[in-house]
Amino acid sequence: MCPTLPGRASPPCRLILVVEDEPTIREFLCEILQDEGFTTQGLPSADEALVFIDHHPQQVRLLLTDISMPGTLNGAGLANRVRERWPGMPVLVMSGYETPQSSGICYPVSFIRKPWTIGQILDSVDDALKGAGG
C-alpha cells in the first residue's frame, strides 16, 4: 500500500481496492492495474472491503467491486455504504448478471459488464477516476 521512502513526503496514493471473490479474476485485475502504475489491494469479500476502507479511507482512490459475492454484504451493498459514507470516492462495479439498477445500488456508480477486455477495464477505471476529479 502506498509506500513512503524515509525522509520523503508521502506520494499521492493511487490505491485501487479490488473486491472479487474469484481469486483468479482478483489477481488478474490487480496485476493489470499494477502494470498501469496503480497500487492495488485485493480482497475476497465486500465485508472485508468495508473494514479496510473504514481503516484507510484516505488511501483508497477507487473501489472496484463485483456485485455478486458471498457474505453478509454483496458488492451492491458495499457500493451503497461507500457512497453514503465517502461520497467523493469513485466506485466501479462489475457483473455478468446484474446492473447497478437491478442490484439495488442507490447512488451513481460506474459500471462494466463481464466479461470485459483489458482495454475495457482500463478505460472504465480511467473514466471512473476522471469522473471523480482525477
Automatic annotation (TrEMBL):
Cross-referenced InterPro entries: Bact_response_regulator (IPR050595), CheY-like_superfamily (IPR011006), Sig_transdc_resp-reg_receiver (IPR001789)
BP-aspect Gene Ontology terms: phosphorelay signal transduction system
UniProt domain Response regulatory: residue ranges: 15-129
Gene3D superfamilies in UniProt: 3.40.50.2300
Lineage: Bacteria, Pseudomonadati, Pseudomonadota, Gammaproteobacteria, Pseudomonadales
Keyword Repeat: no
Family matches, as PROSITE patterns: RESPONSE_REGULATORY
Name of the protein: Response regulator
Domain of life: Bacteria
4-aspartylphosphate: residues bearing it: 66
Signal peptide extent: none
Listed Pfam families: Response_reg
